[in-house]
UniProtKB/TrEMBL annotation:
The keyword DNA damage does not apply. Coiled coil: none annotated. It comes from Ancylostoma ceylanicum. Residues 28-39 have a biased composition (Basic and acidic residues). Keywords: Signal. Residues 1-22 form the signal peptide. The keyword Signal applies. Residues 26-54 are annotated as: Disordered. Pfam families: ASPRs. This is SCP domain-containing protein.
């Protein structure tokens, strides 16, 4: 794995594991347990709203990603953050980050006329077997990162 992808993964963890304040228990983008669902736009099937997260991912990319993953795991929910402040503080004090659930990674060189949407499709196709094994998972979060030369995506499940 190249150093750019490792840096992107670390950035993803930092974005999604950074608390709003030292005293609050809510994390960035997560006001209450149902607020993200209420604030998001409905998915094309009208059943589940796509959450609005403050993570830098474009809403259309998140919508496509959520719809692709929920086609394999229908009852899973997209959560802007997957950890609470207490576990974050424990992880930081122990000198590293930890995630108990599965982590799926996918990276590919960016080429002309290769859209982020196509990259998401390729990632989900690559993960097809893994996703079918995750029916018991309840929540997930992903980060899609694009550079001039590469696409990278990482998804955490719990």
């Amino acid at each position: 794995m190249n150093s750019v992808l490792l840096l992107q993964i670390l950035t993803f963890y930092l974005i999604h594991l950074t608390p709003l304040s030292a005293t609050g228990s809510a994390l960035k983008g997560e006001e209450t347990d149902t607020s993200e669902r209420r604030r998001g736009q409905a998915s094309p099937d009208g059943q589940r709203p796509i959450p609005v997260c403050d993570d830098g991912m474009k809403p259309k990319a998140r919508e496509h990603l959520v719809n692709e993953i929920t086609s394999f795991i229908p009852n899973i929910e997209y959560a802007c953050n997957l950890t609470d402040q207490t576990s974050l503080e424990a992880e930081i004090s122990s000198g590293g980050f930890a995630h108990d659930g599965p982590v799926l990674l996918f990276g590919k060189p960016r080429r002309s006329k290769y859209r982020a949407r196509d990259f998401v499709d390729d990632a989900v196709k690559e993960w097809e077997y893994d996703l079918t094994e995750m029916e018991s998972r309840e929540r997930f979060v992903c980060d899609l990162d694009t550079t001039k030369d590469d696409y990278a995506i990482v998804c955490l499940f719990e």
